[in-house]
Amino acid sequence: MIKSDKSTIKDPDVILIGAGIMSATLGTLLKELQPDLTIAVFERLEVAAAESSDAWNNAGTGHSAFCELNYTPERPDGSIDTSKAIKIAESFEVSKQFWAYLIAKNLIKIPEDFIRSIPHMSFVWGDDNVDFLTKRYKALMQSHLFQGMQYSEDWDQLERWMPLIMEGRNKSEKVAATRMDIGTDVNFGELTRCMFDHLQSMDGVTLHFGHEVRNMRKESDGRWRVKIKDLESGEKRKIHAKFVFIGAGGGSLPLLLKSGIREGKGFGGFPVSGQWLKCTNPEVIEKHQAKVYGKASVGSPPMSVPHLDTRIINGRRELLFGPYAGFSTKFLKKGSLLDLPRSIKLNNLRPMLAAGIKNIPLTRYLINQVSQSQEDRVESLKAYVPNADMKDWELEVAGQRVQVIKNDPVKGGVLEFGTEVVSAADGSLAALLGASPGASTAVSIMISLLNRCFKDKMNTAAWQEKLKQMIPSHGQPLGDNAELVNEVREYTSEVLGLKSLQD
Q1: In what order do the strands lie in the sheet with 175-180?
Q2: Does 37 reside within a domain?
Q3: pTM, whole model, 2 decimals?
Q4: What is the count of structural domains for the chain?
Q5: pLDDT per residue over 252-300, tens digit each?
Q6: Given this model, what pLDDT does residue 44 score?
Q7: Inside any domain, residue 486
Q8: Are 244 and 426 in contact (CB under 8 A)?
Q9: Which of 14, 33, 137, 288 has the most CB atoms around it within 10 Å of its CB?
Q10: CB 445 within 8 A of CB 432
């Protein structure tokens, strides 16, 4: 159990805002690269990983683009664009290498249910969707990162792969699926807390829960003056740091705007809440052993891609279906209803209005989702589980996401569905905005941040050598080297002790 530190380093080298997977990853990387750095972490809640990093608040898929159809869009000419899928697959392999390093060096103690092997599957029905999946499979098979993927339209084969999904389905329906057996389920909440346990044991690191960052300002000497409030005692204080990272999930945007950096001007955010249907019937849960992703319906946003997920949470096997979207003006699950209106500034009003006008289908989708009854939700579940019984499923509230709205000189404003790192020109401050595939690619995102904000040190032989120790493939694109991919996967599987649900 991580406890809040009572004392604070007066003027730390680094301030990390938010105790989620991103801050944990960045803090751990920095202390490995430069052990004498001093770091202070501030989290407004009483525990680490309580928002987006919590197991119930994200899909835990271990995003590697094996099954997520929205990462392989169809081009206007009908061909499949695999560039994003390859990048995400590479990034997840980097994350696994870093986690394996931490475990091999005995720096963190990970419960065995932190990561599990679970097949990643894509499932579609209808002629057009089957054609799309066929083309996607052939396109991905051109990359060694996806070798081992299986494709089938055979009914008997699909029944063996996913009996719950095939049970009760009309056999005249044209269906197809792909399967990757090396997919994973990851409990990012457990991982985050383990990394903070390690950080807190190190000299020069303090963690402060129940502390809210209220404001920040750049001083003439180049340092940041950060105003913090202890939510229990009401005490307010100011702390200075050379570098500030804002990794507060949905709370990052308001703090980025408060920083006043030129690079943050024009950014806005659109909050979307998530919900799952959680299975309560053990017999039904036992029938499914995979993460099965489908295709988003026409007109719905990429974040709405439906999936039926086997999960291991708190040592228990769970089965979830979703996501179902909702709308709240909160930027965090435990945030304020005033978060959205307070985020609207003169410099981001135009991009937000433009993005809103251009995304009317998203507004309609959210209205439809918010107005759904439990019966409506179960009806959509039946597209994947034809024999679903409403009494076996209950609603579980998931995390809150803030989709990024960027200023665009031509379009006025663009709504983004990925992650975005915004950093000051001098590298003294950085903020992470956005959502999926976030946690799975945290290590690659943070290395990119180090290249921006710690450029001089990243160019030194000492830091590069250490990065190679932590991430053996560092500096070598995995998409170009099949032999290296095989070596990396063999190494990480052994060190992480990847086990299937049957083990």
Answers
A1: 150-152, 175-180, 120-125, 291-293, 307-313, 316-326, 268-279, 393-408, 412-416
A2: no
A3: 0.91
A4: 1
A5: 888 999 999 999 988 887 777 778 899 999 999 999 999 999 987 655 5
A6: 92
A7: no
A8: no
A9: 14
A10: yes
